Amino acid sequence: MIEIHVMPDKAALGKAAATLGATAIGRAIAAHGEANIVVATGASQFELLAALVASADIDWSRVTAFHLDEYIAMPPDHPASFRRYLTERFTSHLPTLRAFHFIAGDAPDLGGELARMNTLITQHPIDVTFAGIGENAHLAFNDPPADFDAVEPFRQVKLDERCRAQQFGEGWFPTLDAVPREAISMTVPQIMRSEQVILAVPDRRKAEAVRDTLEGPITPMVPASILRRHPACHLFLDPPSAALLRQTRSTVGA
Most exposed: 93, 143, 161, 208, by fewest CB within 10 Å? Predict the structure, then answer.
């Protein structure tokens, strides 16, 4: 089930998504003494992350975090590195954060890095996953056709051309040719194992993906559509990203 929230603008979208996330983190800490979360990157997450790190209601010393994906062979100081993005916008603002497990996409032994990440996340059941939806409706870097039956939590993937064009279009790379062709990505089943999924999806360029996710068939060709089978998924939109919906129903199921 996906619960839809259409907010008046991106700032309101980010604040509302962060407020819901902070409540879920607090609930996990109250129940288990700790919380495990997944944090996303990209232009769609700017407002959410700014509001989340400003929250006064989270005991970050009890929070362990992961991120969704990282380019292969990408050094951490590259302007497009997701490790750099999250250091600048998340971890540097949270000095008491218990841990953040970054994916080392430039590790010399990628098999070993995948094994390390898969072991770590298996030891930390995820309470909240913050994510977005790509212009091709991808989840993390699971481009169409996504594998809905992947066994491992993280895997090496190839990026399709529409995904690569989005990364260039958002300004992370000087040319399309500079966009990497491979990444390490959290898999769809791992995202689905999260207790709660909170999606921040602003902007008109995401409207087609939002429509297909909510109103089309559940199919690997629209990776985000699988979230209609998640028991607790919240999708935060602004008017441009909701523009192609036939109606902004409060919930959409399978």
Answer: 161
- What total number of domains does the chain contain? 1
Name the token pair of 79: 């302007």
Crossing angle of helices 46-53 and 82-89, in 10° steps, is: 40
Q: At a CB cut-off of 8 Å and minimum separation 6, what does 221 contact? A: 144, 145
- Is 146 part of any domain? yes
The enclosing domain of 179 has a CATH number of 3.40.50.1360
Tell me the residue range of the domain where 156 lies.
2-194+213-238
Angle at which helix 10-32 crosses helix 46-53, to 10 degrees, equals 50
Residue 201 lies inside a defined structural domain of this protein: no
* Class of residue 189 by CB neighbours under 10 A (exposed 0-12, middle 13-18, buried 19+): middle
- CA 155, 156, 161, 166 dihedral sign is positive
User: Is residue 188 a part of any domain in this protein?
Assistant: yes
Give the integer Cα–Cα distance in Å for 243 and 202. 11
Mean pLDDT over each residue of the chain, to the nearest integer = 95
Q: Is residue 117 part of a domain?
A: yes
- CA-to-CA distance for 199 and 126, rounded, in angstroms? 15
Q: What are the tens digits of pLDDT across the range 37-70? A: 999 998 899 999 999 999 988 999 999 999 999 9
205-243 residue pLDDT tens: 999 999 999 999 999 999 999 999 999 999 999 999 999
What pTM, to 2 d.p., does this model score?
0.95
